Amino acid sequence: MIPSGYCEFGGHPADSELVSRAREGIGTSNQVLALFADCKELDDFRKGNRPMLDNHGQILAQNQKGQLRAFKGVSRPEYIKNMSAQSGYLPDALKRADARLKQFPWHQNNENLGLLATDSNGLYVGLLMTVNDAIGRPRAIVGVVGFTLVKEISITINLHQAYRNTPDLRGLLARQQTAMASFVRANN
Question: What element of type H or E holds 34?
Protein backbone atom coordinates (compact mmCIF):
# COMPACT_ATOMS: atom_id res chain seq x y z
CA MET A 1 0.00 0.00 0.00
CA ILE A 2 1.66 3.18 -1.18
CA PRO A 3 1.08 6.45 0.71
CA SER A 4 -1.91 8.61 -0.15
CA GLY A 5 -1.23 11.19 -2.86
CA TYR A 6 1.40 9.06 -4.59
CA CYS A 7 1.21 6.80 -7.65
CA GLU A 8 3.32 3.72 -8.26
CA PHE A 9 5.81 3.88 -11.10
CA GLY A 10 7.56 1.25 -13.14
CA GLY A 11 4.92 0.18 -15.64
CA HIS A 12 5.25 3.07 -18.11
CA PRO A 13 8.04 3.21 -20.76
CA ALA A 14 9.20 6.64 -19.49
CA ASP A 15 9.75 5.15 -16.02
CA SER A 16 12.73 2.95 -16.95
CA GLU A 17 15.35 5.56 -15.95
CA LEU A 18 13.52 6.22 -12.67
CA VAL A 19 13.41 2.51 -11.86
CA SER A 20 17.05 2.05 -12.81
CA ARG A 21 18.24 4.94 -10.61
CA ALA A 22 16.10 3.79 -7.67
CA ARG A 23 17.40 0.22 -7.87
CA GLU A 24 21.02 1.44 -8.23
CA GLY A 25 20.64 3.64 -5.16
CA ILE A 26 18.94 0.96 -3.06
CA GLY A 27 21.41 -1.80 -3.85
CA THR A 28 20.91 -5.41 -2.78
CA SER A 29 20.40 -5.01 0.96
CA ASN A 30 16.68 -4.38 0.45
CA GLN A 31 13.92 -5.89 -1.64
CA VAL A 32 11.90 -3.25 -3.50
CA LEU A 33 8.20 -3.63 -2.72
CA ALA A 34 7.04 -0.39 -4.36
CA LEU A 35 8.42 2.71 -6.07
CA PHE A 36 6.15 5.75 -6.14
CA ALA A 37 5.99 9.48 -6.79
CA ASP A 38 3.60 12.39 -6.44
CA CYS A 39 0.86 11.58 -8.99
CA LYS A 40 0.92 14.96 -10.77
CA GLU A 41 4.71 15.06 -10.93
CA LEU A 42 4.81 11.51 -12.28
CA ASP A 43 2.24 12.37 -14.96
CA ASP A 44 4.23 15.49 -15.94
CA PHE A 45 7.46 13.45 -16.03
CA ARG A 46 5.86 10.83 -18.26
CA LYS A 47 4.66 13.58 -20.64
CA GLY A 48 8.18 15.02 -20.80
CA ASN A 49 7.20 18.21 -18.95
CA ARG A 50 9.70 17.78 -16.11
CA PRO A 51 13.21 16.28 -16.08
CA MET A 52 13.08 14.74 -12.59
CA LEU A 53 10.76 14.11 -9.64
CA ASP A 54 10.75 16.19 -6.47
CA ASN A 55 8.40 14.06 -4.33
CA HIS A 56 8.99 10.33 -4.43
CA GLY A 57 9.69 7.29 -2.31
CA GLN A 58 10.04 3.57 -1.89
CA ILE A 59 8.76 0.77 0.29
CA LEU A 60 11.51 -1.75 1.01
CA ALA A 61 11.87 -5.03 2.89
CA GLN A 62 15.22 -5.70 4.54
CA ASN A 63 17.27 -8.50 2.96
CA GLN A 64 20.06 -10.50 4.45
CA LYS A 65 22.16 -12.40 1.93
CA GLY A 66 19.43 -12.09 -0.69
CA GLN A 67 16.66 -13.37 1.58
CA LEU A 68 14.00 -11.47 3.49
CA ARG A 69 15.15 -11.08 7.05
CA ALA A 70 12.55 -12.14 9.65
CA PHE A 71 12.72 -11.00 13.26
CA LYS A 72 11.16 -14.14 14.76
CA GLY A 73 9.26 -13.54 17.97
CA VAL A 74 9.98 -9.78 18.03
CA SER A 75 7.04 -7.42 18.47
CA ARG A 76 6.83 -4.04 16.75
CA PRO A 77 7.29 -2.15 20.07
CA GLU A 78 10.41 -4.23 20.82
CA TYR A 79 11.75 -3.63 17.32
CA ILE A 80 11.21 0.13 17.60
CA LYS A 81 12.82 0.24 21.03
CA ASN A 82 15.81 -1.86 19.91
CA MET A 83 16.34 0.13 16.70
CA SER A 84 16.08 3.42 18.61
CA ALA A 85 18.65 2.19 21.13
CA GLN A 86 21.11 1.24 18.39
CA SER A 87 22.28 4.80 17.97
CA GLY A 88 25.51 3.63 16.36
CA TYR A 89 23.82 1.39 13.78
CA LEU A 90 21.80 3.98 11.89
CA PRO A 91 24.65 6.44 11.22
CA ASP A 92 26.90 3.54 10.16
CA ALA A 93 24.22 2.23 7.80
CA LEU A 94 23.83 5.72 6.31
CA LYS A 95 27.62 5.98 5.87
CA ARG A 96 27.64 2.65 4.01
CA ALA A 97 24.77 3.85 1.82
CA ASP A 98 26.58 7.13 1.14
CA ALA A 99 29.75 5.25 0.13
CA ARG A 100 27.72 3.05 -2.24
CA LEU A 101 25.89 6.04 -3.75
CA LYS A 102 29.12 7.98 -4.41
CA GLN A 103 29.80 5.66 -7.34
CA PHE A 104 26.88 7.20 -9.25
CA PRO A 105 27.47 10.48 -11.11
CA TRP A 106 24.14 11.97 -10.00
CA HIS A 107 24.89 11.63 -6.25
CA GLN A 108 27.09 14.04 -4.31
CA ASN A 109 26.63 13.36 -0.57
CA ASN A 110 24.34 12.50 2.36
CA GLU A 111 24.04 14.20 5.73
CA ASN A 112 22.55 12.19 8.57
CA LEU A 113 19.93 14.27 10.40
CA GLY A 114 19.57 11.60 13.08
CA LEU A 115 16.57 10.10 14.79
CA LEU A 116 13.66 12.52 14.31
CA ALA A 117 10.85 10.72 16.13
CA THR A 118 9.37 7.43 17.28
CA ASP A 119 5.75 6.41 17.70
CA SER A 120 3.82 3.16 18.07
CA ASN A 121 4.16 2.47 14.32
CA GLY A 122 7.87 3.06 13.78
CA LEU A 123 10.96 5.19 14.11
CA TYR A 124 11.93 7.97 11.73
CA VAL A 125 15.39 9.06 10.63
CA GLY A 126 16.21 12.18 8.59
CA LEU A 127 18.60 12.41 5.69
CA LEU A 128 19.70 15.43 3.66
CA MET A 129 21.13 14.52 0.26
CA THR A 130 22.76 16.52 -2.47
CA VAL A 131 22.14 15.16 -5.96
CA ASN A 132 22.68 16.55 -9.42
CA ASP A 133 19.60 17.65 -11.31
CA ALA A 134 19.00 16.82 -14.98
CA ILE A 135 21.57 19.40 -16.14
CA GLY A 136 24.19 18.69 -13.46
CA ARG A 137 23.40 21.40 -10.90
CA PRO A 138 23.54 20.40 -7.20
CA ARG A 139 20.15 20.05 -5.59
CA ALA A 140 19.15 19.45 -1.95
CA ILE A 141 16.73 16.60 -1.26
CA VAL A 142 15.44 15.79 2.22
CA GLY A 143 14.34 12.30 3.13
CA VAL A 144 12.62 10.69 6.05
CA VAL A 145 13.18 6.96 6.41
CA GLY A 146 10.52 5.22 8.48
CA PHE A 147 11.39 1.83 9.98
CA THR A 148 8.74 -0.62 11.16
CA LEU A 149 8.14 -4.31 11.67
CA VAL A 150 5.21 -5.98 9.89
CA LYS A 151 4.64 -9.73 10.23
CA GLU A 152 8.21 -10.06 11.59
CA ILE A 153 9.71 -8.39 8.49
CA SER A 154 11.65 -5.13 8.75
CA ILE A 155 10.06 -2.63 6.38
CA THR A 156 11.21 0.87 5.51
CA ILE A 157 9.17 3.53 3.85
CA ASN A 158 11.34 6.26 2.36
CA LEU A 159 9.85 9.63 1.45
CA HIS A 160 11.94 12.27 -0.35
CA GLN A 161 11.26 15.83 -1.49
CA ALA A 162 13.14 18.92 -2.61
CA TYR A 163 14.54 20.75 0.43
CA ARG A 164 14.39 24.48 0.99
CA ASN A 165 14.03 24.91 4.76
CA THR A 166 13.26 23.27 8.12
CA PRO A 167 9.45 23.35 7.72
CA ASP A 168 9.95 21.05 4.69
CA LEU A 169 11.49 18.44 7.01
CA ARG A 170 8.72 18.79 9.63
CA GLY A 171 6.02 18.48 6.96
CA LEU A 172 7.70 15.44 5.43
CA LEU A 173 8.00 13.80 8.87
CA ALA A 174 4.26 14.35 9.46
CA ARG A 175 3.42 12.81 6.06
CA GLN A 176 5.76 9.92 6.80
CA GLN A 177 4.11 9.20 10.15
CA THR A 178 0.68 9.24 8.47
CA ALA A 179 1.93 6.93 5.70
CA MET A 180 3.48 4.55 8.24
CA ALA A 181 0.28 4.41 10.31
CA SER A 182 -1.75 3.55 7.19
CA PHE A 183 0.78 0.93 6.10
CA VAL A 184 0.83 -0.75 9.50
CA ARG A 185 -2.99 -0.77 9.71
CA ALA A 186 -3.29 -2.27 6.22
CA ASN A 187 -0.74 -5.01 6.94
CA ASN A 188 -1.65 -6.21 10.42
Answer: strand 30-38
Closest CA to 143 of 19, 63, 66, 60: 60
pLDDT at 164: 82
Phi-psi sector, 10: left (phi>0), alpha (psi -120 to 50), beta = left
More confident residue, 179 or 70: 179
Tens-place pLDDT, residues 18-34 = 788 777 767 777 888 99
pLDDT, one tens digit per residue, over 31-46 is 889 999 999 999 999 9
Is 54 within 8 Å of 38 (Cβ atoms)?
Answer: yes
Cβ-based neighbours of 9, under 8 Å, separated by 6 or more = 15, 18, 19, 35, 36, 37, 42
Nearest to 80, CA basis, from 147, 12, 143:
147
CB atoms within 10 A of CB 171: 13
The 10s digit of each residue's pLDDT in 121-131 is 999 988 888 77
Contact status, residue 113 vs residue 128, Cβ threshold 8 Å: yes
Centroid of chain to Cα 106? 17
CB burial readout 50-79, b (16+ within 10 A) else e: eebbebbbbbbebeeeeeeeebeeeebeeb
Amino acid type, 54: D
